[in-house]
Amino acid sequence: MPSGERIFSLVFNFNRPPFSSMSSDPFASSGSAGASGSADAVIPVSALNRAIGSMLERSFPLVWVSGEVSNFTKAASGHWYFSIKDAQAQMRCVMFRGRAQYAEFTPREGDRIEVRGLVTMYEPRGELQLGVEAVRRTGQGRLYEAFLKLKAKLEAEGLFAAERKRALPQHPRAIGIVTSLQAAALRDVLTTLSRRAPHVPVIVYPAPVQGAGVAAKLAAMVDQASARREVDVLIVCRGGGSIEDLWAFNEEVLARAIAESAMPVVSGVGHETDFTIADFAADVRAPTPTAAAELVSPQRVLLLRDLDHRHAALARGFGRMMERRAQQVDWLARRLVSPAERLERQRTHLRQLAVRLASAGARPVRDARARFALVQMRWQRWRPDLVAEREHLMRLAQRLSVSQGRRHERASARVSELSARLQVLSPQRTLERGYAALIDTQSGRAVRAPDALKPKRPLTVHLAEGSADIVLADIQPRLSDEF
């Protein structure tokens, strides 16, 4: 998004809550707000500028801006007011005294500089400005480019890989420090070590931390400490300063010496916001030299407290072990007996075994007899009684004979009844009463209707005493249905 469109979007998309609590503002039009809703609310200019300023500070991060100094003014309060410009545009800047007093130089009219600042809004005048936190000469940008190039190179080689990092020893036997003897950082580190771990010896490997050829000297001290193997952990440190002052810790020779060190290395260079190549090459990066000393030194008070706890736990464990041993001795003492008593116990045991052997020999016989008696009893129980069974069969035969006789009588009576009913319904009886049955000789069916009679058609007449074949010569229509 172009810068003009971005600022426009930021101004018209600020949060609404700052204006929602302004009902007491004498300049707000309550009537219009109540009638039209929040979209028509009237807000004062100060609230608008405040919202725009808050949005700018949240949206734009800290950024380095380069340009030429113009209209530089140092106020009596110590604040710096100036503009930074190039051929196309300019931006008003303010650097407050708390930041300005740490600047390494005072800019002059026409100087080309780089400032690190945050985009803000000066609310009283509604002007956009840059709140400057740091200033440096333009040449420092080239150093930063060299820093990034070397960092990318060493990172590509795997010099900063996490798997290369080593853990710091929890209880170092000796601590080494690579720094200048005149550095304030050395005093801070020694003070911290004497306060936290006065029992740990400290060895200083002196080397200058600023000037020409410093990186090679620092690397030589790191190599010397690694070769002598007289410390368990090494601190490489110096106090804060500009990028030029810290540049020795951005040299490749020192980074490789730190990475190849035989013991873990803690880098404590500059302030918390300062990052160097040595920080990335070291096993642990501390924000300050004091913090580096705190990282490598166990706190003596905590060690003594832990030692007391362990001593108490050891004493309790030893006491419990002695109690268990005493109990075991008492148990073993109860098991000790004289030889005579032991022989008597063995004789008693042999007598018991003899009794058990005798009883064991008689037991199978008793068991066999008991099983035989049980089988005999069960056989007697299930043995059949032939006399009773024979009487039972005779009774069943008598019942069968009686039952068959009765069944024969009932069947004979039923046959007689059905024969009588059959005689009543027999066709022969009907013929005997004077009727005759006409059968169509061709189809074999009985003639039932006069329409079925045809001249010259052969018929069979069944009578009571026989049958005869006839042929109809002629058929006369019946005059009346009555006989």
Automatic annotation (TrEMBL):
The keyword Oxidoreductase does not apply. It is an enzyme of class 3 (hydrolase). GO terms for biological process: DNA catabolic process. Residues 159-469 form the Exonuclease VII large subunit C-terminal domain. Its EC number is 3.1.11.6. Gene3D superfamilies: 2.40.50.1010. One of its GO terms (cellular component) is exodeoxyribonuclease VII complex. InterPro entries: Exonuc_VII_L, Exonuc_VII_lsu_C, OB-fold_nuc-bd_dom. It is found in: Cytoplasm. GO terms for molecular function: exodeoxyribonuclease VII activity; nucleic acid binding. It catalyses: Exonucleolytic cleavage in either 5'- to 3'- or 3'- to 5'-direction to yield nucleoside 5'-phosphates. Keywords: Cytoplasm, Exonuclease, Hydrolase, Nuclease. Residues 44-135 form the OB-fold nucleic acid binding domain. It comes from the Bacteria. Belongs to the XseA family. Bidirectionally degrades single-stranded DNA into large acid-insoluble oligonucleotides, which are then degraded further into small acid-soluble oligonucleotides. Heterooligomer composed of large and small subunits. This is Exodeoxyribonuclease 7 large subunit.
